[in-house]
Amino acid sequence: MAYSDLLRLSQGQLNTFTQCPRRYQYTYHEQLGRPLDPNRQESLTWGSQFHTLMQQRELGLPVEGMFGPDDPLGVTYQALLAKLPELRESDPNVVREAEHRRVLQWPDVVLTVVYDLLLVTAHEATILDWKTYRDLPPREQVEQNWQTKLYPYVLAATSDYTPEQITMTYWIVGDAENVRSHTFPYSTAAYLATQNELRHIVAQLLTAEEQYRNDNAPFAQVPEAKGLCRRCPFVQCCERQETTTFAPTQWREMIHNSPDI
């Protein structure tokens, strides 16, 4: 199979498929949209602006014109600079790259990651990710998210760094008064566990893809007993709408519990 024909998988796709294969079908094959709370749309816009600001900064472009003196974007930016010395200080021994993309080719898929900021020295590599909302889910949940598992895995598999030389840190910047980080050191045990899990999931996904393409067989539905349907935007597509009634405030809960962190 040619490289261009391989299925490309990101952490978002892996999260979606492992949470519910049918949701993967609706999202990536049928490209069904989902309604957004207006507050969520505003948050997404702000998050995009923040990521653009950080990327421009790493490119050496001026960023001061992107915000006013009391603009939350600027206040948050300054708060992050105060907490993260690696942003304030220039170290000739550190190579840094914003929006760094890496790919790892497996026999039938290509795994793709994009790091908000990658800092590397001769002996260690640090993956930084900006989370532009007020909090993360519990640490155990973040550890099981495919972003936390896939990002260091791909770096270890495509570089000379050992897993123990790699660290991933999330910076939560949605609240300028409470900018903070959560760090996840990597390990060989985690690398091997992720590799085994990937082999299992990719095999399941490719089987589902083939059956969907050749036999028009739908992807499997998540068991209702898991209780995920009441937060799913595709509950009506699955004809499970009798299990839930969405109130306006529940859209925020649904988005918070989406496959991405």
Structure description:
By secondary structure, the protein is of the alpha/beta class. Helix 1 packs across helix 2. It is globular, with a radius of gyration of 20 Å. The chain starts with 6 loop residues before the first strand and ends in a 5-residue tail after the last helix. 21% of the residues are buried.
Sequence-ordered SSE layout with sheet pairings:
Layout: E1 7-9, H1 11-19, H2 21-29, H3 38-58, H4 72-83, H5 85-88, E2 95-105, E3 109-120, E4 125-131, H6 139-144, H7 146-157, E5 166-172, E6 180-185, H8 188-215, H9 250-256
Parallel strand pairs: 1-3, 4-5
Antiparallel strand pairs: 2-3, 3-4, 5-6
Helix pairs in contact: 1-2, 1-7, 7-8
